[in-house]
Amino acid sequence: MNKALSGALRSALGAAATGALLAASSPAFAADPIKIGVIAEAQAIAGASIPQAAQLAADEINANGGVDGRKIEIIGYDNHSSSADSVRAFQRAVNEDKVNIVIASYISEVVLALEPWASRLKTPFVTPGAASNEISKSVHSDYEKNKYTFHGYLTSAALALSVCDGAKDLLVDKMHMKTAVIMSEDAAWTKPLDVGYEECLPKIGLKVLDHIRFSPDTTDFTPIFNKIEGAKPDVIITGISHVGVQPTVQWKNQQVPIPMFGISSQATNETFGKDTNNAAEGVLYQGVSGPGVAVTPKSVPFAENFKKKFGNYPSYAGYTAYDEVYYIADAVKRAGSTDADKLVDALEKTDWEGTIGRVQFYGKDDPFTHSIKYGKGLITGLMLQWQDGKQSAVWPKDVAKVDIKFPSFIKLSN
Amino acid sequence: MRAFQILIDGFAISALYALGATGFTLIFGVSGVLNLSHGAIMVAAAVAAWAAASIFNVGTYAGALIGVAVALVAAFATYFAVVKPIQDSRRIPNEEKEIFVLTGTLLWGIMIQELIAYFFTNNAKTVLPIVEGVVDVLGVRTPKNEIFTAIVCCLVIALLWLLVNRTRTGKAVLAASMNPRGVTLLGLELTNIYIVVWGIYGVLAGIAGVLLGMFLGVSSYSVGPLTASAFSIVVLGGLGSVSGSLIAAFVVGYLETLTAYLVSPAYRTIPALLLLVFVMYIRPQGLLGRR
Asked: How many CB atoms are located within 10 Å of the residue B16 CB?
């Protein structure tokens, strides 16, 4: 009796062990997938690329066997550009769909609304496109609570630096410009951006003559352009994201003779050309990558694959979202787990060459904790220009393909 | 120089407002319907014109015509699918029908808005202008398209005046707005008059939408503000009074332009809304209202 029992026990144990072995050796029987929730503005030019790029990255990783045999599963949520919808999506993603980590939004207001939820629900969260300094400042000021949030895009402060670095080489040194007017929409991300502009533009030799902030609901930009023209600046330095098509088209229709240079998020997406009936011609905008620009060896293949699959080149948030899925996968691999705290530790040690440069995060003691590092050898950003219906890099020199050229209505003062 | 600038810019935007509000007030005057899907119909026209010209490459003129046609279809759809069933319903008490029509057209407008956002994203679209380039008017560099917009608006409004005052159909419409029961006693079918009015409305809203798309650009977000602006212009001018709406459109247009130039573009709409509140206090029937 005893013998028989122990025999049965032994064979049962043996079966279990074989089962375990089988499971470990074959990916088909692998553990649960790594679930990434993607909350984005599917109906907006800049946001639409986020879920698409994330899915592309996941498909590539899965085709190569996944992460230690675990597949990556993207669960998408359209937030209709609304903070309230995003918070509901975040709760649903964590509580019902049991995601391990969330990638969300290019709008700072949305990300700032989600940040406390990442803390409450202890779920790591990365944004591919929001810029407000406050996102990473809150991580710094209350690290233990807010450490779950990562800022996978440049802060407004870094964006202002990137624009100024480009402006110094292109506008001041090459074209001898001396004056500028700042034109930015009234939103959370532009407050620190404007502070950055006000600080760095005079340093590179561009005197700020006026500073115009306008409501993101503005539809008629005639008075704004007239006011800017009245100040007679050499260049308009932009900070626009919620608006883009309308000011660009009116700039062209009214033949405002002053070039626009700066952040124009909508201009980063290829569909911008068609949406503006090519009024975008001559617009200069900051980007982290762009079609045909080999920031790293990964940039061009990604942009081409994206276009092949979705019909247009990605917006800036597409590049970052694609990289994020990859370095999340890398972090899961290094952590050996999807446990939230272990994942946060692993993400902090990220050193990943993606499509926008080399991604590392600022540490606990830096003021912008968990924001990606800005600088040479890491991420510097680019300046691109719409030329002949295409986006072409004009700065920095090592990736620039063409020289700046303007439509005939632009009158350079020098 | 700045005065001329305000004069010219204010005129174009006011003329556009006037055109947008005329159809809205006409429908109210004749059939008592406040059509809250107004902004959605205008945006649908502009987006259709954009899509036809930019995606299907039919050309600027054909694109504009397609835009107006889409507005006409949308206007009839609003009437036959939303307004008429409520007006004909026996289960809705007569005194509640106005509220039902308000709610119905509001929801209908939201449906159109969401469809546009779904198929064409919520980013702004701009219709390629029929005339491009700029001219110098009194020292102000003015886009030719702005002048074109103002001229078309004035022409269409003049045509509407002729139609209403000089043709048999127009007179029937006018009569219906004064005394619907009297019109039926004369043997005219009220429903036919309504169809004519919705047709006129569709064309007006379509032209206004396409011109707006050329002048400033529209997105699915414009739906609410466009309805609200037509609504406040019509209330300011006196509900149902076409000439009141025209005056109000110019008051609002110039007030907004003045604010944008002299105060700040950020406060553009505020003075006009304050004026509306003020007028409601001292003259609730509006500037030229009858009731």
From this structure: 24
Non-local (6+) Cβ contacts of B176 within 8 A are B30, B31, B183, B188, B190, B193, B197
Q: Rounded distance, CA B92 to CA B86, Å?
A: 7
Residue B290 has a pLDDT of 65
Residue A135 CA to residue B63 CA, distance in Å, equals: 45
Please state the φ and ψ torsions of residue A278, each to the nearest 5 degrees.
65, 20
- Is B9's Cβ below 8 Å from some Cβ in A? yes
Query: Which residues 168-207 in chain B show a CB within 8 A of chain A?
Result: none
CB B215 within 8 A of CB B149: yes
pTM value > 0.80: yes
Side chain identity at residue A333, one-letter code? K
φ, ψ dihedrals at A361, nearest 5°:
-105, 145
- B18: nearest Cα among B134, B151, B129: B151
Q: Which residues contact B146 (CB under 8 A, 6 or more apart)?
A: B8, B9, B12, B215
Angle between helices B60-77 and B38-54 (to 10 degrees): 150
CA dist., res. A414 & res. A259, Å (int) = 13
List A155's β-bridge partners, or say none.
Answer: none
Residue B200 near residue B68 (C-beta atoms within 8 A): no
- Contact state of B266 with A254 under an 8 Å Cβ cutoff: no
How crowded is the C-beta side of A111, counted as CA atoms within 13 Å?
35
Reduced to 3 states (helix: H, G, I; strand: E, B; else coil), residue A297 is coil
A321 to A97, A153, A310: CA distances (angstroms): 20, 9, 15
Residue A16: pLDDT over 70? no
> In this complex, is the C-beta atom of B35 within 8 Å of any C-beta atom belonging to chain A?
no
Q: Are strands A358-359 and A352-353 parallel, antiparallel or unpaired?
A: antiparallel
Task: Kindly report the number of other CB atoms within 10 A of residue A96's CB atom.
Answer: 8
A279, A252 in Cβ contact below 8 A?
Answer: yes
Q: Are A159 and A196 in contact (CB under 8 A)?
A: yes
Indicate the pLDDT class of residue B118, thresholds 50, 70 and 90.
confident
User: Residues of A266-281 as b/e, b for ≥16 C-beta within 10 angstroms?
Assistant: bbbbbbbbebbbbbbb
Q: Does the beta-carbon distance from B124 to A253 stay under 8 Å?
A: no
Q: How close A243 gets to chain B, by Cα (Å)? A: 8
Q: Is the pLDDT of residue A20 over 50?
A: no
Does B103 lie at the interface with A, CB-CB under 8 angstroms? no
Alpha-carbon distance B53 to B58, whole Å?
A: 5
The contacts of residue A18 (CB under 8 Å, 6+ apart) are none
> Rounded to an integer, what distance in angstroms lies between the CA atom of residue B189 and that of residue B64?
33
Amino acid at B262: L
Helix%, strand%, coil% for chain A, nearest 5? 45, 20, 35
| Helix (H/G/I), strand (E/B), else coil: A210 | strand
**A163/A173 Cα distance (integer angstroms):** 14
Cβ pair A40, A79 in contact under 8 A: yes
Residue type at A327 in one-letter notation: Y
CB A222 within 8 A of CB A254: yes
Smallest Cβ–Cβ distance between A43 and the set B117, B124, B265 belongs to: B117
C-alpha distances out from residue A316 to A83, B109, B213, Å? 21, 33, 27
User: Residue B45 has what pLDDT?
Assistant: 97
